[in-house]
């Protein structure tokens, strides 16, 4: 009987060696382990169960042979596990290897937004004329946004400035124009003042040509002896620099509460050159901005606020100083410069649209 057991042990060793030679993965190793040392039906387990049939005099020798087989199998399995592990690690490294000779992937370059491009172009022109670029808060109070600009609570012109109000004390609102920056600048410094104020403004509008949030740039010049002709010359120079010397400029009388006299400023159509087309509704002209001489009531409001703040009186006496102001939509200018026919394209963030401005 011991001889039979010895033959079975020898066959088990041979079978294990034959099967182990083809193991190359963790799954194959697990199957090999189950066939030979598994607790349910493994070859070693079957051999240990056969000890019951061995006579008492041969049982110690048989147990020793089986223990030697067990130690050998476990040692071989550990060696195979180390080999398989190393092979899988090598394959993993090979799969994740980086070919350093390949060219790198280029990072996609962004571009400035068309509204930003228009704003920077406008700022450059005014800086060349000596203007300072000023800024102010987008959350304003009623005094700076309306009352100081000759827009008392009952004024009908406020209807065109319907905006978003913030609940709570102080009558706070989202500014409807950048004119409050002009008021704040005059309260902060005595004349002469020469500035433009670009920035975001808010109104309750949304269609092809209006957005609830849009961009404006407003300008202010205050000193002694400023005349309407200075305003006209400044705007003509600016518009020629912006759209080209071929563009014609005209002023039409218009009303704005914070200027007197006031004017709408038109340029000859940049699409048809003034011949008449759909863009200009057949008139040959495009309205581009509003302007006028600063209303004396605005200077008086600034004077009262300066006196209340303990500042020197008389700096903005309308009998001594004069000035002009103007304002235009930066989004509108961007549409004209880049022939954009729908204002909503400027806020939709469509990459196909925005990438057209790369490199400009």
If you had to describe this structure to a student in words, what would you say it looks like?
The chain has 360 residues and is of the alpha+beta class. The chain has 2 domains: 2-95, no CATH class; 114-357, BirA Bifunctional Protein, domain 2 (2-Layer Sandwich), CATH 3.30.930.10. It is 41% helix and 18% strand. The protein has helices at residues 2-20, 26-37, 43-49, 59-95, 114-128, 142-145, 179-188, 228-243, 296-308, 330-338, 351-354; strands at residues 132-133, 139-141, 172-174, 193-202, 213-223, 249-256, 259-268, 285-294, 322-329. The strands form 2 sheets. The protein has a 7-stranded mixed sheet, with helices on both faces. A two-stranded antiparallel sheet has the order 2-3. Helix 2 packs antiparallel against helix 4 and helix 5 crosses helix 10 (330-338). The longest helix is centred in the N-terminal third of the chain and has 37 residues, at 59-95. The mean pLDDT is 87.
What are the SSEs and their pairings?
Elements: H1 2-20, H2 26-37, H3 43-49, H4 59-95, H5 114-128, E1 132-133, E2 139-141, H6 142-145, E3 172-174, H7 179-188, E4 193-202, E5 213-223, H8 228-243, E6 249-256, E7 259-268, E8 285-294, H9 296-308, E9 322-329, H10 330-338, H11 351-354
Parallel strand pairs: 1-4
Antiparallel strand pairs: 2-3, 4-5, 5-9, 6-7, 7-8, 8-9
Helix pairs in contact: 1-4, 2-4, 5-10
CATH class of the largest domain: Alpha Beta
Number of strands: 9
Total count of helical runs of at least 4 residues: 11
Helix and strand sequence: HHHHHEEHEHEEHEEEHEHH
CATH topology term of the largest domain: BirA Bifunctional Protein, domain 2
């Amino acid at each position: 009987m011991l001889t039979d057991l010895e033959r079975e042990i020898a066959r088990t060793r041979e079978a294990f060696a034959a099967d182990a030679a083809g193991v190359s993965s963790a799954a194959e190793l697990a199957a090999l382990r189950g066939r030979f040392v598994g607790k349910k039906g493994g070859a070693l387990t079957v051999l240990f169960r056969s000890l019951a049939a061995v006579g008492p005099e041969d049982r110690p020798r048989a147990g020793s042979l089986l223990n030697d087989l067990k130690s050998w199998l476990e040692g071989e399995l550990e060696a195979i596990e180390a080999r398989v592990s190393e092979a899988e690690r090598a394959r993993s490294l090979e799969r994740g290897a980086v070919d350093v000779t390949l060219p790198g992937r280029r990072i996609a370059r962004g571009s400035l937004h068309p509204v930003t491009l228009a704003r920077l172009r406008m700022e450059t022109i005014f800086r060349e004329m000596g203007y300072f670029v000023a800024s102010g808060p987008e959350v304003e109070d009623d005094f700076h946004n309306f009352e100081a600009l000759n827009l008392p609570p009952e004024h009908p012109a406020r209807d065109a400035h319907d905006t978003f109000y913030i609940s709570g004390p102080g009558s706070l609102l989202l500014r409807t124009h950048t004119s409050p920056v002009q008021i704040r600048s005059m309260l902060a410094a005595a004349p002469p003042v020469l500035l433009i104020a670009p920035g975001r403004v808010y109104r309750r509008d949304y269609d092809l040509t209006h957005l609830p949030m849009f961009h404006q740039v407003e300008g202010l010049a205050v000193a002694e002896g400023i005349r309407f002709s200075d305003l006209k010359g400044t705007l003509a120079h600016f518009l020629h620099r912006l759209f080209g010397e071929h563009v014609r400029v005209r002023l039409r009388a218009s009303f704005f509460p914070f200027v007197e006299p006031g004017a709408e400023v038109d340029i000859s159509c940049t699409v048809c050159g003034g011949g008449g087309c759909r863009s200009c509704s057949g008139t040959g002209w495009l309205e581009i901005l509003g302007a006028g001489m600063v209303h004396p009531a605005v200077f008086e409001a600034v004077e009262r606020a300066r006196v209340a703040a303990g500042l020197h009186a008389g700096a903005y006496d309308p009998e001594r100083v004069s000035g002009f102001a103007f304002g235009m939509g930066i989004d509108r200018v961007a549409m004209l410069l880049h022939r954009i026919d729908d204002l909503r394209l400027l806020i939709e963030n469509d990459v196909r649209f925005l990438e057209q401005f790369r490199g400009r």
